[in-house]
Design a protein that fits this description.
321 residues, alpha/beta, Rossmann fold, 2 domains, three-stranded antiparallel β-sheet, 12 helices, 12 strands, 16% strand, coiled coil, SGNH_hydro_sf
Length: 321
């Protein structure tokens, strides 16, 4: 930096000396000009002499310009703290910096599109106290802000469907693709002599939603077979699950029936509620569907597993389940 400043100072001195030479040469030229009394003098000779003088000065200044000055480019400027600023170099550096600062995902249009689409997805679980027992494992397996679990002890089919309707309205307003998971039905089976009423309510709403909002995905969870309450309740639960399964099959692929009753061994209930082990197992299986919808998947590594965002490759370490 000091060397550049010294060279600039030297150049300034040289230019001042050249200015002095120019003044001296100009005086010589003036002496050669004819006076007013010599009208027969040829003006062409004087003009030619001036052109030759200008050419000599130009060549002299070109010699005095150092090679480093030419490499530095136009308008070499010394700024604050004797900082040498080269506009051409600064512009190139800024351009390279801007190119490097662009995230890689923006340079991959297809991947960015998939990522953007996944960010406009939400998964909502609504249900009773058994749905609440799935919450811990769901959030453990899918640690994602796009998943929400909302439950109420003893929730009925009617009030759960009303809450679901509000969730759909909010998703439509936000232009969000919704995965709506319903885990409800046990209360209605226990309180009604005929469980068909809750199935009719369910059929009416699911039919309307799947037709009006086919962009959303609906999952209806099977009600557990409440063995401790007697064989007649178990029969009612099985009949309810059968009709619910037929309903989902009839409505098409955007409506899915989720059942794990055939995988349950031994006493998986405490009265009418899932045991802790059952909640972990069912929650884990349901989490797979949530993760698939939101665009994340599980990688197993020994005793632990990872959740990986498919589009962003973001990894979250989880405890073994």
């Amino acid at each position: 930096m000091k060397e550049l400043v010294q060279e600039l100072s030297t150049e300034r001195t040289l230019r001042e000396e050249l200015s002095t030479k120019v003044a001296a040469l100009q005086a010589e030229v003036d002496k050669l000009r004819p006076s007013k009394g010599h009208l027969d003098t040829d003006d062409t000779d004087v003009h030619t002499e001036q052109q030759n003088t200008a050419k000599v000065l130009s060549n002299s200044m070109a010699k005095d310009e150092t090679e480093e000055d030419r490499e530095a480019g136009p308008w070499l400027k010394v700024g604050k703290n004797n900082r040498v600023e080269n506009p051409t170099k600064e512009k190139a550096t800024t351009q390279r910096s801007n190119e490097q600062s662009v995230p890689k995902k923006w340079n991959q249009p297809k991947q960015q599109l998939r990522y953007t689409q996944s960010q406009h997805r939400r998964s909502v679980v609504l249900g009773d106290s058994n749905a609440h027992r799935l919450k811990r494992q769901l959030h453990k397996d899918v640690s994602d802000w796009r998943l929400r679990v909302t439950t109420k002890p003893g929730a009925t089919m009617e009030e759960t469907l009303l809450r679901a309707e509000k969730e759909i309205e909010q998703a439509n307003s936000a232009e969000t693709k919704l995965q709506l998971i319903l885990h409800v039905g046990s209360t209605d089976i226990l309180n009604e002599k005929e469980p068909h009423r809750s199935i009719e309510q369910l059929k009416q709403k699911l039919t309307a939603w799947s037709q009006a909002d086919p962009q959303h995905h609906y999952i209806l969870c099977a009600t557990p077979e409440l063995t401790p309450r007697g064989p007649h309740v178990v029969t009612a639960c099985r009949e309810w699950n059968k009709q619910a399964n037929e309903l989902c099959t009839m409505l098409g692929p955007q409506v899915e029936f989720f059942s794990t009753t055939n995988q349950m061994d031994g006493d998986y209930l405490e009265d009418i509620h899932y045991t802790e082990a059952t909640g972990t197992h069912v929650g884990h299986l349901l989490a797979m569907k949530v993760a698939n919808f939101l665009g994340v998947y599980r990688e197993h590594h020994g005793s632990s597993h990872k959740l990986v965002d498919v589009y962003q490759n973001k990894t979250t370490q989880c405890e073994p389940s």
